[in-house]
Task: structure prediction
Amino acid sequence: MKRIQRLIKAFFDRLLALIAIICLSPILIIAAIGIKVSSKGPVIYKANRMGLNVKPITVYKFRTMRVGADTKGAITGANDNRIFRWGDILRKTKVDELPQLFNILNGTMSIIGPRPEDIDIVEKYYTETEKKTLSVLPGLACPGSIYNYTHGEKYLIEGKVQEIYVTKLLHVKLALDLYYLDHWNLLYDAALIFRTVHAIILNMAGKEIKKYPFEYLKVYGNKDVMAEGL
Result:
């Protein structure tokens, strides 16, 4: 049954990605023009990330930082001065991630799945249990990314961004993604699509999301594990 569901998932991943590219093409064009006007350099940023079965992949994003800024670390926090103004808008609305629809078309990513992580971070900080998240295609969205977007990012304090991410936030995100993998089905994926869009809309409307994702509540309860020790 799971095998059939995964075949269905693969089919709809590509179909929905193609439909999304067509429907969102005006937004993609506006995003690209805004980058060219705002900052010198390429429109697309090609990130080296770890993919399925611990194999590196190239992930496409709209560039949101000045050229060469990625040499100072892969993790960004709030008010990171490497991000130019238009890039900040693209990040907050998650439009910067839309080029990954082409990753979905070429089969290196899925719509829903653990977010593709920096190769160096995977090799240095993933536990053997956490590497289970590399047994499926990485995705545009997942429980870990929802938590990061609604709660986790605020803990990435300037000056300690990388340290806090790799010692705390990374493992919280992966714990939620492991819960997802253990309970995966197509309806779960569909729900995550709507939950992600809902979170983005609320954020754009300036509304703070205080409630934890249910995966977080299942794993940690109401305990604020990120605040401990900060």
About this structure: The chain has one domain: 2-220. The chain has a mean pLDDT of 94.
